[in-house]
Amino acid sequence: MYALIIDDSRAMRSILRRIVTDLGFETLEAADGQQALDHLNEGRVPTLCLIDWNMPVMDGYTFITNVRANPEWRDITLMMVTTESEHGQIVRALAAGAHEYVIKPFTPDAIADKLELLGLVAKAVPA
Amino acid sequence: MSSLELVAPSLTDVEMVAAEVWSSFLGDEEPLLIGPPAELTVGWSAAVSVSGEWQGMISVELSAEMADQVTRRMLCLDDGPLPDEDVADAVGELVNMIGGGVKSLMPGPSALSLPVVAAGRVARPSDVTEVCRFDAQWAGSPLVISVHIQSPKI
User: Fold this and answer.
1) What is the C-alpha to C-alpha distance for residues A35 and B106, in angstroms, rounded to an integer?
2) C-alpha angle with apex B94: A93 to A91, nearest 5 degrees?
3) Under an 8 A CB cutoff, do A83 and B86 touch?
4) Which of A12, A63, A84, B125 can pair with A7 through a Cys bridge, CB separation 3.0 to 4.6 Å?
């Protein structure tokens, strides 16, 4: 399973990469929505996209609307990971086709919990 | 001018936001300690602006040593050369999260800018007034988080 991490911050991409790698994903990265679309157009279609909202060139919301406009990409799970926490923005992102919304700062467990809910990682069983 | 332009976060608000960012991304082993105001030689600083129903600017100033430690912690890097590009990126993400947290406590809707990062002190617009200043220490180094709002127009 591939996760495409879309964030203009290398530090944030690094943090997310460690989290999803621990959860069993291989990763691709993009520094903005356009770079991410380029990956998809070149056939690198991931299972999951983790998407920042505020990025140069193309923001995360525009990326989501582009992905949802292409039926070939309908199976990609889209998860916003952003500092934007206004109710209106969350509703807008979900209405555009995002499956989940995580607000920064987050913990690794918060990401894992969301991916469990989406059925992308196995539920942790207490020892 | 709307009366909402004068709304400002409290010191407790900013402390809460900063503590959450620190514990999530920099770990709990070295907690962020509140003030007192200390002599800070600014090595790096960064700012984000909020525009909309609430208008303001949130900035972070930290020493070069602290910026180095924050970057290494975020990127999981040990000792060794650290490019300025990486430090700028980490400090920018830090102010992005703190600014987003402050924005979430203020009247909306509003939009958060991309971070502006500088080696040294980031420039501030002349029409803003500091309404909140949070002095803290982390790993023995001082840090200042400031919130500025647009001054009322006369």
Assistant:
1) 33
2) 10
3) no
4) A12
Residue A109, pLDDT score: 94
CB contact under 8 A, A86 and B109: yes
Q: Nearest residue of A to residue B113 by CA position? A: A54
Mark yes or no for CB contact B76/A106 under 8 Å.
Answer: no
pLDDT recorded at residue B4: 44
Rounding to the nearest 10 degrees, give the CA dihedral for residues A102, A9, A109, B19.
Answer: -90
Single-letter residue type at A125: V
Among B57, B62, B56, B60, CA closest to B46: B60
| Predicted local confidence at residue B154, as pLDDT | 57
pLDDT at A126: 64
Mutate to test the interface with B, among A83, A84, A92 (most CBs of B within 10 A): A83
Dmax (CA) for chain B in angstroms is 52
Cα(B63)–Cα(B144) distance, integer angstroms: 10
Read off the tokens for B119.
């080696």
